[in-house]
Design brief:
- The chain has one domain.
- About 10% of the residues are buried.
- About 10% of the residues have low confidence.
- The longest helix is centred in the middle third of the chain and has 9 residues.
- The protein is mostly beta strands and about 120 residues long.
- It contains one helix and six strands, in the order ββαββββ.
- The structure holds zinc ion.
- The site of zinc ion (ZN) has 8 residues, from loops.
Length: about 120
Amino acid sequence: MRESDFFDEKDVRKPTSLTCPFCGRTYQYEVRWRQRLKKKRLPGGASSEDRRRFSKAQSYLVRIDDMVGCQHGGCRRRFEIASFQTVVFLSESEPVSDATRKQPARTPARRNRNRNHRHRRG
Ligand SMILES: [Zn+2]
């Protein structure tokens, strides 16, 4: 069983503010990501090894775009989305939301506690 069997895959666009390193202007760019949401359950025919891998699998986003073209008319240069992470793991309770923000994993902020923490079961 391949890793892709564990996920529902879909391409998404996330509006992201990026600053052009050439002209220094900030615009909103539609950055493309591939979203892999972990399936609710394993497809049939899974081996115990598959089950072990599946239990460790986590929903995530992988950035597709590496470069964007500056939207400023007098610039138009392409620049790399360097400051921006390429993979974002999603917690199961809140897929997709805030994926464009910085990695929440280690921030001491407690904001996430206010979000719903209910575990959905299919
Ligand atoms: Zn520019």
